[in-house]
């Protein structure tokens, strides 16, 4: 455990002290020297923790030995031996900050008392040293992970300063994420204890306060899973990188572990997820943009069932589960941008709960798993859906919309577009477009088609005008376009409609 050197020119004294120490402290390693010169050579070679030295010795006395150790910056706890007539020497030794001094002949209990005090101090000092090194390593490792442009040579130099081996047989990086109120430092201490006997393991807290582990042996993660899993109330997941040979590639392996950990969102029952098992999942380039737009357009209409059906189609779990996690992240981003962001500022203070949910749903990892996220997404959509329905009743009272609708119904037969109507009622084009869709439940083009077809139906049913003439009368110079639009809205041609209505 500790190493002790005994230096004394009297053979019986040095051997007697050695025998006492061996009996009382069997874990200690002891060395003996007959003078200061021999003691110095042994100290340089073996670096003992404690040096017990006589003051008067040939070749090099105890005072000179202490000075040599201080000059060479060799740190050891010094205990001096002296007789009653050596008090002057003892005073000189005390000036050099020796830990204690013992009178000859050495009393057994006094020796043990001194050694116990020194070992307690060494243990406390060692704990402080380990804690300081752990904190230093954590800060430097996070510096490596957070610095995108750090050179490999700089990384290599930092590892030397941190006293981290190069892992010649390769290493893995694992990240542990927990649910609940367990403190990160407490978990780190627990994992340090579990890995105490495992060589080549370095646990630390990353920037997100997650326990991150560099390990030469992947089996250490299996052991942690088993040990941590014994507490049924402790919910955790571990993402593990592939094996990497080059310690300078720590950032890459850390990102692999972080990516693997994300898949716990899709597979909440898996406690350990390996990067090698998810890295081949394909990226899906195209998002269901049209469906997302449909949902956005339907909000506030009487199409609640269609909204939910389209949402389930957008959030197709089978497709999501077989794709890269990037697909779900991009999907969430598209939903937020297309549907939610436009409503954020318009939700009043009375809708505080909706505000909070909107902020939370911006990041899928604010939820424990996919199903929790999906239900929150559906809930938020329905809240905004109801909100829009209420907003429509407000818009319907506005004179602008009344004027716009009246203008369209009076001038549908002309070359009409959104800009013309917006200009007529003196509203900004973009604002009017948005307000029109909120009020009507469909965009301007579709509404104009509906008005024109309604009037065409009346003319087909009540007059003898030719279809070509009716086409021009409702705003279509091209009869083929009129027929196409009519069929699109009614499902049959103008001719079929006239024949059906007699």
TrEMBL record:
The keyword Oxidoreductase does not apply. Residues 3-119 form the Response regulatory domain. InterPro entries: CheY-like_superfamily, Homeodomain-like_sf, HptR, HTH_AraC, HTH_AraC-typ_CS, Sig_transdc_resp-reg_receiver, Tscrpt_reg_AraC-type_HTH. GO terms for molecular function: DNA-binding transcription factor activity; sequence-specific DNA binding. GO terms for biological process: phosphorelay signal transduction system. It is found in: Cytoplasm. PROSITE patterns: HTH_ARAC_FAMILY_1 (PS00041), HTH_ARAC_FAMILY_2 (PS01124), RESPONSE_REGULATORY (PS50110). Keywords: Cytoplasm, DNA-binding, Phosphoprotein, Transcription, Transcription regulation, Two-component regulatory system. The modification 4-aspartylphosphate is found at residue 54. One of its GO terms (cellular component) is cytoplasm. It comes from the Bacteria. CDD domains: REC_YesN-like. SUPFAM superfamilies: CheY-like, Homeodomain-like. The keyword Metal-binding does not apply. Residues 402-500 form the HTH araC/xylS-type domain. Its main location: cytoplasm. This is Response regulator. It comes from Mesobacillus boroniphilus.
């Amino acid at each position: 455990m500790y190493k002790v050197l005994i230096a004394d020119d009297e053979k019986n004294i040095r051997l007697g002290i050695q025998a006492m120490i061996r009996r009382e402290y069997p874990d200690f390693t002891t060395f003996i020297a007959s003078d200061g010169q021999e003691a110095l050579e042994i100290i340089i070679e073996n670096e003992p923790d404690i040096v017990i030295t006589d003051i008067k010795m040939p070749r090099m006395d105890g005072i000179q030995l202490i000075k040599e150790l201080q000059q060479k910056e060799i740190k050891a706890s010094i205990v001096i031996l002296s007789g009653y007539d050596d008090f002057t020497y003892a005073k000189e030794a005390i000036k050099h900050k020796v830990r204690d001094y013992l009178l000859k002949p050495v009393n057994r209990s006094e020796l043990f008392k001194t050694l116990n005090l020194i070992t307690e101090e060494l243990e406390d000092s060692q704990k402080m040293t380990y804690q300081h090194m752990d904190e230093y390593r954590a800060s430097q490792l996070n510096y490596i992970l957070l610095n995108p442009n750090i050179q490999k040579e700089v990384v290599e130099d930092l590892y030397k300063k941190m006293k981290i081996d190069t892992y010649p047989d390769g290493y893995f990086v694992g990240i542990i994420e927990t649910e609940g109120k367990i403190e990160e430092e407490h978990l780190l201490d627990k994992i340090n204890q579990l890995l105490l006997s495992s060589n080549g393991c370095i646990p630390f807290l990353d920037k997100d306060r997650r326990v991150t582990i560099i390990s030469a042996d992947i089996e250490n993660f299996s052991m942690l899973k088993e040990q941590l899993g014994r507490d049924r109330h402790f919910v955790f997941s571990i993402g593990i990188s592939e094996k990497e040979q080059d310690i300078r590639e720590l950032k890459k392996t850390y990102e692999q572990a972080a990516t693997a950990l994300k898949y716990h969102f899709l597979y909440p029952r898996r406690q350990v997820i390996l990067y090698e098992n998810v890295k081949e999942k394909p990226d899906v380039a195209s998002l269901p943009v049209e469906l997302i737009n449909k949902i956005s357009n339907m909000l506030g209409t009487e199409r609640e069932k269609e909204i939910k059906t389209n949402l389930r189609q957008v959030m197709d779990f089978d497709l999501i589960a077989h794709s890269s996690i990037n697909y779900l992240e991009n999907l969430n981003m598209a939903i937020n941008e297309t549907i939610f962001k436009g409503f954020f500022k318009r939700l009043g203070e009375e809708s505080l709960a909706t505000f909070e949910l909107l902020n939370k749903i911006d990041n899928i990892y604010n939820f424990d798993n996919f199903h929790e996220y999906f239900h929150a997404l559906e809930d938020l959509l329905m809240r905004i859906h109801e909100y829009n329905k209420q907003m429509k009743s407000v818009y319907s009272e506005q004179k602008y919309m009344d004027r716009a609708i009246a203008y369209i119904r009076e001038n549908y037969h002309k070359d009409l577009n959104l800009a013309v109507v917006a200009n007529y009622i003196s509203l900004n084009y973009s604002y009017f477009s948005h307000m029109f869709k909120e009020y009507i439940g469909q965009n301007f083009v579709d509404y104009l088609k509906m008005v024109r077809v309604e009037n065409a139906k009346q003319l087909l049913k009540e007059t003898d005008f030719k279809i070509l003439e009716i086409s021009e009368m409702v705003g279509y110079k091209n009869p083929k376009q009129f027929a196409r639009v009519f069929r699109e809205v009614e499902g049959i041609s103008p001719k079929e409609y006239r024949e059906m209505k007699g």
